[in-house]
Amino acid sequence: MTYSYRDATTVVGPLAPVPLPGSFDLCADHALSVTVPVGWQLVRLVTEFEPVAPSTDDLTALAEAIREASKKDVPPPKPARREVYRPAMDVNRAPRPRPKFSVVEGGKMDDQEWPKHDDRQSATPDLSAVPEPDGDLS
Fold first, then answer.
1. Which residues are 44's β-sheet partners?
2. Whole-structure pTM over 0.85, yes or no?
3. Fewest C-beta in 10 Å: which of 21, 35, 43, 123?
4. Are 46 and 28 in contact (CB under 8 A)?
5. What residues does 11 pair with on adjacent strands?
6. Buried b (16+ CB within 10 A) or exposed e, 47-70
7. CA 14 to CA 45: how far, in whole Å?
């Protein structure tokens, strides 16, 4: 199978005698069931070649290739070499305490007392309306 983006065409045909960049060898089932994107054209080249049954020569060549590959000395695997950037952690030190929050019961403000975000005023409430405390606080 080969394809061309410029022509929006896919061609499915017999196996190529030499490997070509951008081409894929498909088995018979996949060659018959391949689909293309919408808008693309699929061209099937139908040939009258009969599939050849595997011969004893093919099996012998495969067995010899496996035998040769098994004779090669394989170097032992090397451990991965990488640097780890982690801060050293003192396992003897107690973990940092988590902050504790508590709910404070308090006065409830009406919606009218909250500053409006639409107003282009400061977000701090106007404290001029707060009455002075009675008596001496010292």
1. 12
2. no
3. 21
4. no
5. 2, 43
6. eeeeeeeeeeeeeeeeeeeeeeee
7. 7
